Give the backbone structure.
Amino acid sequence: MASLRTLKEEVYEANLALVRHGLVLLTWGNVSGIDRDQGLVAIKPSGVPYDDMTADDMVIVDLDGKVVEGTLKPSSDTATHLVLYNRFEGVGGVAHTHSTHGAAYAQAGRPIKILGTTQADYFADDIPCTRDMTKEEIEGAFEHETGNVIVETVGNRDPLHVPGVLLKNHAPFTWGKTAAEAVRNSVVLEEVARMGLMTAQLNPQAEMNQHLVKKHFERKHGPNAYYGQGGPN
Amino acid sequence: MASLRTLKEEVYEANLALVRHGLVLLTWGNVSGIDRDQGLVAIKPSGVPYDDMTADDMVIVDLDGKVVEGTLKPSSDTATHLVLYNRFEGVGGVAHTHSTHGAAYAQAGRPIKILGTTQADYFADDIPCTRDMTKEEIEGAFEHETGNVIVETVGNRDPLHVPGVLLKNHAPFTWGKTAAEAVRNSVVLEEVARMGLMTAQLNPQAEMNQHLVKKHFERKHGPNAYYGQGGPN
Amino acid sequence: MASLRTLKEEVYEANLALVRHGLVLLTWGNVSGIDRDQGLVAIKPSGVPYDDMTADDMVIVDLDGKVVEGTLKPSSDTATHLVLYNRFEGVGGVAHTHSTHGAAYAQAGRPIKILGTTQADYFADDIPCTRDMTKEEIEGAFEHETGNVIVETVGNRDPLHVPGVLLKNHAPFTWGKTAAEAVRNSVVLEEVARMGLMTAQLNPQAEMNQHLVKKHFERKHGPNAYYGQGGPN
Amino acid sequence: MASLRTLKEEVYEANLALVRHGLVLLTWGNVSGIDRDQGLVAIKPSGVPYDDMTADDMVIVDLDGKVVEGTLKPSSDTATHLVLYNRFEGVGGVAHTHSTHGAAYAQAGRPIKILGTTQADYFADDIPCTRDMTKEEIEGAFEHETGNVIVETVGNRDPLHVPGVLLKNHAPFTWGKTAAEAVRNSVVLEEVARMGLMTAQLNPQAEMNQHLVKKHFERKHGPNAYYGQGGPN
């Protein structure tokens, strides 16, 4: 169980990082992480203030959503997280926020177009927005269907090359190899949304050269990555 | 009198929460709370800096506005608060701020359209803006008439389903079951105003599916609410 | 000389208040205050970082700009402040900032229209923008001519009813009965500029009822003011 | 080697100043400084969190990019910095950030027009944006070519009169006589970008009188500069 302890601490720290980066108001937002060997997920409890939370409050669920450890109810978005773990193999962490600019793009139903190296350093393409959910999806297993719509939106792309989407009329979901990386991608998404809105105001026709997109993404994530002190960062 | 002491402390804390959430500049903004059994309201004193204020400075008035306890003058907006307590039965707290984005919507005379789940988690509909007040209302019992115009704007809706309005050319008023909940609704109103302005800039035609509005509002407030650790949150 | 000591401390505190309110980057901005009995003005020294400054660094000049006390050079904008003291009798303090939204209006050459009670609580009207200065004014006694253009812009209005203007392609100047009140008016100007920009984005045709303007200004500043714990605030 | 020690400390402090001024998210941004006598440059290591960094982590490279001192890899943007030192004689420090508004202008491919004295106090003209880089430049010695494009954009102008450019679809580079001054120019660039975006929203036709530009630039930087306590500031 040592690894579960570590996972709970990582997920706890990742949830606090959301707050520290100014991505969270009140109790909005949640982060989870998975231990792939055990097939167990640690996630923030539902509606608990960040200030009162401890690492022990993280709830452990299996990939079917059954609570395995913990006395609190897991996040009401747990079923969405689980779909992503079940369908995206390389993903080790998932984050959900209502960060202001990301949420505005989601409300507008617009993708965050790739217009600069800030985005290309982490996302190989536009950050897409999901389609409207149907009445049946909304009134059915809503949070599970939400996960399905995210998976549908990512489509054939490598989820780690487009590590986030905008949930229409809702807000962003991001992911990464770890819970910390999922949070980092939420930070990046919010910042490029902020830049993207201003860019559109300055020049609605702005575009980015695909050679430059590729260069920057591969500088950090390609087989010959050379940013940072080791391999890809 | 124990309950009055508690009420004053709750109202004092709620006033400080406005400041902590960045909704207040200088001495703008005020929060009140009511003890329904005694029919007494605690409210911030007028024009006193938040830093110098103590719980004891909260002024107690009855539902006709008579000062029952306290040496300072109550907020100049007291008469508006009292109309809301007299007309909205389930309301236990009222907050007024000049939060920037909410005030901008009020100055524009535009409702904050419901465009995302951030709003739908707390408001079941658009946040309406009041009509222009008449010369007679402005030159008459101005603060009392302000309350009347708010009540007129809420109309037949359940005040706890639309727990706030924009006062035209002025700023937001919000309310809730407690003073703390009224402040929380001011926080939400300011954030959805911020998101709403950006959404309009990204896509002036943005809309939200009514099924999704209903799902989110009821997830937190309906008879089968399942967000948080207990009942509705 | 006791009063000079007090004046230097008030002006020092008012300069720090500019920083605390987020209206100052680097060494931009300066506040002065006047002792009308002695005809002496205390003002921030030129280009000194706020962190290193003490009350003793405030420079005392007479109404002709002669340094009477202090080892540092006074603000390069001193001549502008002096014109305002010489021409506006009731003014006891002057503040100059490059606060972002105020500066944007000044760069746009647009007045800050009165659109809400936030402005009407402190300004009885629009906050005007000066005309372009001529080549002769710019290449002549520039800072003195800047003061003249401000006075020309205020025109026949009571300077304490319109306690600030936008200097075209530059930034705001505000004033008040004291240095602290001049700073407060800089805070209000920046906030109403921020609200004004957003209001224009939401509704370019927004307007405010003159009865409401008058009601709010007089609630705080008229002969029957009833805001705050004493008289006008 | 005493001077190298000092240089490393200055560069370390300048990197932290970027963070303190809110111009940096995550590990984005880097500052370097040069010792012209030794022809050696100190620069931030690549991808190292600011919180963990010490002055000793600054990497020393010569003007050909060879690491002379230090155990970490230098910033992946080092080659860009070196072109600027090799081509701009009077430059002693270079800074690169992804500051939000500057990056938005870079993404839009638009210069930051000179519209106010805030800009004219530090830049004698518009802040230009580079052209698109070619496929060959991007796939070749990318960071070196980036430096060449910056030099091409500055053209015949004195680099200290236009101490920064926007790198198209990327973000700002600024420079100055020292590392600290390069950072100060990044602060100014971000602020005038913020003001510029708002100015364009308020009045797309806004312009600034060239006499006023000249007056303000020379007040701080001309032979008869009179701002601050000494010479030019």
Q: What stands out?
A: The beta strands of chain A are 30-35, 40-43, 59-62, 67-69, 93-96, 164-166, 172-176. The domain at 2-221 of chain A is CATH 3.40.225.10 (L-fuculose-1-phosphate Aldolase). The two ends of chain A are 29 Å apart (CA to CA). Chain A has a mean pLDDT of 95.
